Amino acid sequence: PTPLLRVDGLSVSFRTPRGTVRAVDGLGFTVERGRTLALVGESGSGKSATSLAVLGLHEDAEVTGSVRLDGRELTGLRPAELSALRGRRMAMVFQDPLSGLHPYYTVGEQIAEAYRRHFGAGRAAARRRAVEMLGEVGIPEPARRAGEYPHQFSGGMRQRVMIAIALACEPDLLIADEPTTALDVTVQAQVLELLARIQEERGLGVLLITHDLGVVARVAHEVLVMYGGRAAEQAPVDALFAAPAHPYTRGLLDSLPRLDDPDDAPLRTIPGSPPSLLARAGGCAFLARCPRAADAEEADRQRCAGERPRPAAPPRAVPADGTSHQVACHLPLPAAGPGDAAAAGLS
Ligand code: SF4
Ligand code: MG
């Protein structure tokens, strides 16, 4: 069957005074209906540039490659066509709900307006639908709160309102870019739970952009780890957490706090900074920070420096359901022992 979203060979470049920056460099992935794919990486890894490219929202960038929604090519569509699709088939939820809400209209009016725009419903029907939507995203006393303004809502409740607006047009694909990053931990968990529930009930495909592997563990089915605008590793979430094959993924997992050891420092990070995206040589983008290359034989290190690693199956047993695991590394890590998921504090 045709995947809901299929991205192939996607590149996004910006011209800057210092030269051309390639924020996304030959990326490919699919999002199936009823599944959540998490794009994970540090800031500057190209994950937000990817989501904007899928939505057709880049203005000053050169975007090449293919983005197909339900088999239909989106690159090269006219702005009006894209904007219609964005309303009707793809919806988005961003980190800062206030930036997406109008301060002078009640939240009920804003949801009703989104609904009217997409379904041409009458005012009364749209207002009823707005109250229903507020209930569906877990806002108590929805009939009363529909008449309130965004500033009367807490951050978590505002994000629920944004989700209600996104869902009002009944999209097939939801793109959520750091949807809970601005929220405190308890509220974050509640909003993630809501997203997961809605995703399942509606059979939505979700593209979730996050830097937080804890968020990934809660809601994603598949994970694509990005580094320097490229895919480092892609796998079903369990396989990735149990046996990461890319040294960068391993580093990200090692930097998670260990739940089985409360004294463990929660904020270990991977040494070094993200790569410059300006004119890059042919080797692996992670080389300067890679502990595995640092320990490798000279010949292997030469290969890391000179040849871009392409995604391939790592040395792993293929799971019974045939789901695929891909890693872009010349020296992928061996499969870990059975204790590893527990050691990462995630099982
Ligand atoms: Fe490290 Fe080499 Fe693998 Fe890149 S290709 S992640 S430098 S071992
Ligand atoms: Mg971002």
UniProtKB/TrEMBL annotation:
Residues 252-274, 301-347 are annotated as: Disordered. It is found in: Cell membrane. Residues 331-346 have a biased composition (Low complexity). SMART domains: AAA. GO terms for molecular function: ATP binding. It comes from the Bacteria. Residues 5-253 form the ABC transporter domain. Transmembrane segments: none annotated. SUPFAM superfamilies: P-loop containing nucleoside triphosphate hydrolases. It is a peripheral membrane protein. Residues 301-310 have a biased composition (Basic and acidic residues). The keyword ATP-binding applies. Keywords: ATP-binding, Cell membrane, Membrane, Nucleotide-binding, Transport. Pfam families: ABC_tran, oligo_HPY. PANTHER family: DIPEPTIDE TRANSPORT ATP-BINDING PROTEIN DPPD (PTHR43297:SF2), OLIGOPEPTIDE TRANSPORT ATP-BINDING PROTEIN APPD (PTHR43297). Belongs to the ABC transporter superfamily. NCBIfam families: oligo_HPY. This is ABC transporter ATP-binding protein. It comes from Streptomyces andamanensis.
